[in-house]
Amino acid sequence: MGKPDYVSCYRVLGVGPDSDWDTVREAYRRAAQRLHPDRIQDGGRDTSEQFKSVNQAFHTLEEYYRKHGTLPRIRTREDLARRRSPKRSAGTRARGEWPRRRQHPTRGAGTPPRARPIRRVMTTLLAITIVIWLLADGPEVQEEHIGFEARERPVVGTGQAGGDGPEAGRYFRYGSARDEVRAVQGKPDRVERTASGEVWHYGRSKVYFEGDMVVTWEFDLSSPLRIRLDSPPGDIQPRFTYGASEAEVRAIQGVPERVSDGVWEYGMSRVYFDEEGRVSGWESNPLHPLHVYE
């Protein structure tokens, strides 16, 4: 069965394709009363055929309405022409005029409508690029060689503070004499006597002597020491222990591979920190050993 001819149905009932259901029903009622055989005794075959056409047209539209809740819409030539033509307001339709594009008060005649949003996006991207460039090309921060050092054995130093370069006399290192440390670091806050030598206290930092020579130290950022670790003599390995700061661990062990809440991971080894950022423990794996001093 082919598709019903809804255009013919509207035409038989004498209504337009944009009519609503009440209009269609009223048109059918009037046509049925006008063409009913009981009212027209001598209408002949033509009147009977018209009455059947009206009934068939109405029932076809009624079936569609019950199934879809609306009447079938028919696209006429006028509808297609209206869809192709630009929209016009009620006032311009009445006057037969086309509406003009509304111009923004702050835009010039030649400014595209989307110029301002695009300009805003470009400005934001430029600002982000400048910030990234400043962060990337900013002053490079050099890592200080600081940390807790392990006292493995007495070391015989060079006898000069900081070496023979242009900075000699500004720093001390392994093997420096007590007079050199005093000249560079100043008078200690307290001197502690030990079985092998002395411990000079500078705030929370300490310098250890065996005999008259520096063998190691404990460095605290609150009381910095003027030391150099660029050329440690012998096989002494800088190490850290309990209470070392995060900066000291980074200087001795290097930058961690992963950092979580209070835990630094170096391969399969871990360093734990307390709430003040001080070393509270560690797990040293032989595959990735930590430079610790217990």
Mean pLDDT: 76
Q: State the domain count.
A: 3
Shape: rod-shaped
Low-confidence stretches: 139-168
Strand order of the largest sheet: 1-2-3-4
Oligomerization state of this entry? single chain
What percentage of the residues does DSSP assign to strands (E)? 5-15%
Describe the sheet with the most strands.
Answer: 4 strands, antiparallel
Number of helices: 8
Instruction: List the secondary-structure elements in sequence, H or E.
Output: HHHHHHHEEEEHEEEE
Percent of residues in helices: 25-40%
Query: What separation lies between the terminal Cα atoms?
Result: 96 Å
Structural class: alpha+beta
> What Rg is obtained from the alpha carbons, in whole angstroms?
48 Å
Give me the count of strands: 8
Explained architecture:
The chain is rod-shaped. The protein is an alpha+beta fold and 294 residues long. The protein starts with 5 loop residues before the first helix and ends in an 11-residue tail after the last strand. The chain has helices at residues 6-13, 21-35, 44-68, 77-84, 90-95, 115-136, 178-185, 246-253; strands at residues 190-193, 197-202, 205-210, 213-218, 258-260, 263-266, 269-273, 279-283. The chain has three domains: 6-68, Helix Hairpins (Orthogonal Bundle); 143-236, no CATH class; 239-294, no CATH class. Mean pLDDT is 76; it is low at 139-168. The strands form two sheets. A four-stranded antiparallel β-sheet has the order 1-2-3-4, with no helix packed on it. Strands 5-6-7-8 form a four-stranded antiparallel β-sheet, with no helix packed on it.
